Amino acid sequence: MLIPFSLRDSIPALYETDGQSDPVCHIKLFTPDTNWTWYVIEFSKANKDICYGYVQGLENELGYFSLNELRSIRGALGLKVERDVFFKPTPLSQIKKSHK
């Protein structure tokens, strides 16, 4: 499970952080065998699938992504998307700064 039930309540609902200049990234998802990373800022409490967050891939950008789609992704070595279990909630500005 990419976002365990125990963590879902701590993530703001979709649109809840609108207007915040430096929202918190709560979950880090990544492919161990590629350069793609997804940081979850908001999570749809209604459908439990759509997330809003910061995506680092071909470009670094804020946007929406589907957990169902992430579950189907396989990297170059066939590895699945994983959750970084050691990741602590971090302001977006720090995430951006650490990846320049």
How is this structure best summarized?
With 100 residues, the protein is α+β, with helices and mostly antiparallel strands. It has three helices and seven strands.
What do these coordinates show?
- With 100 residues, the chain is an alpha+beta fold.
- It has one domain (5-16, 23-98).
- 17% of the residues lie in helices and 31% in strands.
- The protein has three helices and seven strands; from the N terminus they run H-E-E-E-E-E-H-E-E-H.
- It has helices at residues 5-8, 67-72, 92-98; strands at residues 24-25, 27-30, 37-43, 50-56, 60-66, 82-83, 90-91.
- The strands form two sheets. It has a five-stranded antiparallel sheet. A two-stranded antiparallel sheet has the order 1-7.
- A hairpin with a 6-residue loop joins strand 2 (27-30) and strand 3 (37-43).
- The protein is globular and about 40 Å long.
- The model has no long low-confidence stretch (mean pLDDT 96).
Blueprint of the fold:
Elements: H1 5-8, E1 24-25, E2 27-30, E3 37-43, E4 50-56, E5 60-66, H2 67-72, E6 82-83, E7 90-91, H3 92-98
Antiparallel strand pairs: 1-7, 2-3, 2-6, 3-4, 4-5
